[in-house]
Design goal:
TIM Barrel, eight-stranded parallel β-sheet
């Protein structure tokens, strides 16, 4: 029987290095109710491309979702993956909230619904108090990880947490002291920080001196942007959680694969050269699409796959003119062409 590790059972869906996508939450146009069929289709589409799903994250408009809606999404994703013969693909769920108490409540609900891992952002509402208080920040992640029934990934995103930016010292201490922490997502875009954290957690001695509570949940250091997948690999990083993987799952997964191949086989200069070429295309696409935020990503999904829709209010949809300008942008079209080539759909319209 497949288990997500609740109540002490071993996780049977290990957390492996690679590319993960924060899945958008799709809404019906007239009611803003959850569009579950589109959501399930997208989760399976990405998983078949080698991209793991993260639900109720920033791209998934977690702040706009009720507790019950988050549970519905987790159950739908698990059911869709199992039905598509993908029972091995783990589900990561965003469970960060304003208080430690609600964060733990969400985490327990996610685990009961079938999530294998949670990802937790620092609460930013009282950032003026928390930002300079290292003890309080450490206490938050320590308590959440200790009391969580599933492994927890720390989420460092200053733009969504009132400017709170966990430094490498805090992250290394948390990784060393909290055996149920399974990694960190760095949406601060700080490659230096990534390098410093990896210098500790990617060391061969780390697993011996700081073993994880569950050996199937190692501490992964994951970037939050697609523009440094290749450099991250050479700093002993473990991949990325990126919104761009929604638009270009095959391209980003292939870039990760090539980067690892080039790093582990220095004589494979062809792999390195191709990874460098793809990194340029992916980085330019990421830079252009990120400026259009959630609404822009959903617009592109509508163009590519026939679903996407608008964000939940008060987030505004992208205008038709701005959306079309994004679609025809050379950076986006280069990425779309690459994605179609890699997915075997070159020339599709």
């Amino acid at each position: 029987m497949v288990s997500n590790g609740v109540n002490g059972h071993k996780v049977s869906r290990p957390l492996r290095p690679g590319i993960f996508a924060p899945i958008p939450t799709f809404f019906l146009p007239d009611t803003e109710d959850l569009d579950i069929p589109s959501f399930e289709t997208h989760v399976v589409r990405l998983a078949k491309a080698g991209v793991g799903p993260l639900l109720a994250g920033s791209m998934g408009e977690a702040h706009h979702l009720s507790h019950s809606e988050r549970v519905t999404l987790i159950k739908a994703a698990r059911s869709a993956l199992d039905a598509a013969d993908l029972p091995h693909v783990p589900v990561i769920a965003g469970t960060g909230a304003g208080s430690t108490r609600e964060t733990l409540e969400l985490t327990n609900e996610a685990a009961a619904a079938g999530a294998d891992y949670s990802i937790v952002i620092t609460s930013g509402y009282y950032a003026g108090v928390l930002a300079g208080n290292k003890n309080a920040l450490k206490a938050f992640f320590t308590e959440v990880s200790e009391k969580s029934p599933i492994p927890v990934i720390a989420y460092n995103y200053p733009g969504a947490s009132g400017g709170i930016n966990l430094d490498s010292d805090i992250l290394v201490e948390l990784a060393t002291e909290c055996p149920n922490l399974a990694g960190v997502k760095l949406t601060c875009g700080d490659v230096g920080k990534l390098t410093r954290v990896c210098a500790t957690v990617s060391s061969p001695s780390f697993d011996k001196t700081s073993p994880r509570k569950n050996p199937d949940a190692p501490f992964l250091v994951l970037g939050g942007f697609a523009d440094f997948i290749l450099p991250s690999t050479y700093s002993k990083g473990h991949g990325a959680i990126i919104g761009l993987a929604n638009v270009a799952p095959y391209a980003t997964a292939h870039l990760q694969e090539l980067s690892v191949r080039a790093y582990t086989n220095p004589s494979d200069t062809a792999a390195l050269a191709e990874a460098q070429r793809l990194q340029g295309i992916v980085a330019r696409g990421d830079y252009t699409i990120a400026k259009a935020s959630i609404a822009g990503t959903k617009y592109l999904l509508e163009k590519l796959y026939g679903y996407g829709g608008a964000p939940r209010k008060p987030l505004p949809p992208i205008s038709s003119a701005a959306g079309e300008e994004l679609w025809v942008h050379p950076d986006v079209q280069d990425l779309v062409q690459l994605e179609r080539q890699l997915s075997g759909k070159a020339g599709s319209k």
